[in-house]
Amino acid sequence: MNNLWKKEAERTEYVNLFASVKDSGLDEMCIELFTLGKSQKDNLQSTEWLVNGNNYFCQNKWYKAMECYRKSLCFAQAGSANEALAYSNISACLLRLNWFNETLHCIELARQSNLPDRVKPTLKQRVIDCLRRMLMSPSYPVYERMHKFKPKLSYNADEDYPCMANVVEIQRNDIFGRHLVAKCDIPVGQTVLMEEDIPLIRDDNDNRSIEQRKTFLKLRWGIDCKCEKCVPIRASFDKKVTTSDLSYKYVVENHKNTNDFANVVKNCIRFLETFGRSQWSPEIEFVFNVYGQCLRMGFGN
Q: Which SUPFAM superfamilies does the record associate with it (predicted)?
């Protein structure tokens, strides 16, 4: 304010235009408002806001809980566990509000902070739940295709390959490689091959899922898998695959929800790669985005 003086025309004296203004303490208020001292970072206050947020969370008051967690984050000292816990708790609220992208973003921020080991399994499961709900949400185009399109063979299924009609057979030669050959005249528009059996979630009560995974091995590489257990595939399509490249593990014992879901996404990508990138659609881009989230969260490797 000292710079806002007015010089009168006839005299050399200066008049303070703010002389009649009462001292309102604006200077002190501005200093207090915009000065961030070390004393403002206090993990005790941060913990208090965490507790307040948890109380609102138990009452299903998500917005009030997030406001408390935000204040906890402001008071949390950099690199402390409170910082990670605040992000983690905010992500829990966002998931209940169906803000899936924001949920994954907050979980990633929590992972980048000093996250306690006891919280990591909870966040892992939250990522799985979030991605599954994203896939099942009507706001995503994959939902409509998943629930409305149910392929069905136009002929009886082949005895060895349940996802292929018995009017075609798989042959291989040096000219065409592995290819399909019709056993008879097939009218246009008939369904002779279904891809639904490939991207499949393992159902422990459905023995057919094991047969379908073994069928996938036969169709892709001509490998007749004799293993009676589920066969998750750990091989790249960019190289020639041999039996030694496959890792046989039983899903029930070694593959919990995380890998089950990641394998579904991987199989979807493998399925889409078969048709080439020129035919990609928003649904395909969505699948790759979900898979990218899996990788960034440390899953599906």
A: TPR-like (SSF48452)
